[in-house]
C-alpha cells in the first residue's frame, strides 16, 4: 500500500516542482533571448542592479539624443548632418522601447526617483539644448556635432560600465552595440566637424 501511494505521488510532486520553478525570480532564458509571446524584446535572464541602472540612465540619455536629432532635421544645413541625425534617431528610438520593456519585465521604474539627469556622462543641460534650438545653418551644424560627440562619449562610458558589471546578456549585448555604433559615429562627426 505504501509503495502504491509513493508511486502515485511522484508525478504530482514533479509537476508541482516544475510549476514553482516557472514562477521563480530567475527563469531560464528562452533560446531566442526573448520571452515567449511577450511583445517587448525583454530579457528573461537573471539581471542585477547595474542592468537596472543602465536602462534607467540610458533611456533619458537616448531621449535627449533623439530630441537633438529632431532639431537637426529642421535646423541643420548640411545633408550629412541631417542624415546622421536621422540614423541616430532611427537607432535610439527602438532601443528606448527595448529598455523600457526590460524595466517593465523586471518590475522596476523607468527612472530612479533621485536621479539627476544633468549629472550623467555626456548629458546636455537645459541651457545647452536651448542654445542649440536657437541656431540654424552652419552654426547649428557645428554646435550639433560638438554636442553630439560629447553626448555619444558619455553613452559609451555608460555602456562600458554595463559591459564590466552587468549580468543580463541582452543588456550587455545592447551595451556592446552602443559602444560599436556610437564610437563609429563619433569618428564620423569629428570628420564632419573638421570640414566645417
TrEMBL record:
Entry keyword Transferase: no
Keywords in alphabetical order: Signal
InterPro entries: DUF305_CopM-like (IPR005183), Ferritin-like (IPR012347)
Domain of life: Bacteria
PROSITE patterns: PROKAR_LIPOPROTEIN (PS51257)
Keyword Signal (UniProt): yes
Signal sequence, renumbered to the chain: 1-20
Residue ranges of domain DUF305 in the record: 51-193
Coiled-coil annotated spans: none
PANTHER family cross-referenced by the UniProt entry: SLL0788 PROTEIN
Protein name: DUF305 domain-containing protein
Organism, scientific name: Actinomadura rubteroloni
Lineage: Bacteria, Bacillati, Actinomycetota, Actinomycetes, Streptosporangiales
Amino acid at each position: 500500500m505504501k509503495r502504491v501511494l509513493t508511486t502515485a505521488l511522484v508525478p504530482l510532486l514533479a509537476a508541482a516542482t516544475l510549476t514553482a520553478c516557472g514562477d521563480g525570480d530567475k527563469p531560464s532564458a528562452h533560446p531566442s533571448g526573448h520571452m515567449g509571446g511577450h511583445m517587448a524584446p525583454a530579457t528573461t535572464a537573471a539581471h542585477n542592479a547595474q542592468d537596472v541602472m543602465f536602462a534607467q540612465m540610458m533611456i533619458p540619455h537616448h531621449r535627449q539624443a533623439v530630441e537633438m536629432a529632431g532639431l537637426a532635421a529642421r535646423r541643420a544645413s548640411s545633408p550629412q548632418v541631417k542624415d546622421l541625425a536621422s540614423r541616430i534617431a532611427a537607432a535610439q528610438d527602438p532601443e528606448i522601447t527595448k529598455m523600457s520593456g526590460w524595466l517593465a519585465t523586471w518590475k522596476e521604474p523607468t527612472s530612479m526617483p533621485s536621479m539627476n539627469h544633468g549629472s550623467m556622462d555626456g548629458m546636455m543641460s537645459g541651457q545647452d539644448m536651448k542654445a542649440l534650438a536657437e541656431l540654424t545653418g552652419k552654426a547649428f551644424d557645428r554646435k550639433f556635432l560638438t554636442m553630439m560627440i560629447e553626448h555619444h562619449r558619455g553613452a559609451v562610458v555608460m555602456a562600458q560600465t554595463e559591459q564590466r558589471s552587468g549580468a543580463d546578456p541582452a543588456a550587455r549585448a545592447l551595451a556592446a552595440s552602443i559602444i560599436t555604433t556610437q564610437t563609429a559615429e563619433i569618428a564620423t562627426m569629428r570628420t564632419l566637424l573638421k570640414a566645417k
